[in-house]
Design goal:
The chain is an alpha+beta fold and 104 residues long. Helices cover 45% and strands 26% of the residues.
Length: 104
């Protein structure tokens, strides 16, 4: 009596692996990549809409008020008669956004 063992089909394993990889990429895209792109677009829109008198926070954590807006930089008043020049790319957010997020 001879028992013959059949080898599993090679195509079935690679097809399920490919499907799993596509699903993993789709999940990563919708939960990680797409929200980050959306936040980045909102940040660019915020930076382009900066105007005099607006309160901001820089990437370095400096709170101030916009005194002057130029194409590449923003003049930020941090105290009475104290202003610093900050690159527009380092302006991160509006402090009122923080208060709204914290529920105050």
């Amino acid at each position: 009596m001879t028992i013959m063992l059949q080898a599993p089909a090679a195509g079935g394993g690679s097809a399920s692996f490919l499907i799993m990889m596509v699903l993993i990429f789709a999940v990563m895209y919708f939960f990680m990549i797409r929200p980050q792109q959306k936040r980045q677009k909102e940040l660019v829109k915020f930076r382009n809409a900066l105007e005099r008198g607006q309160k901001i926070i820089t990437a370095g954590g400096i709170y101030g008020t916009v005194k002057e807006v130029k194409e590449q930089y923003v003049l930020v008043e941090v105290d009475n008669n104290v202003a610093i020049r900050v690159d527009k790319n380092m302006v991160m957010k509006d402090p009122s956004d923080l208060a709204a997020a914290q529920g105050k």
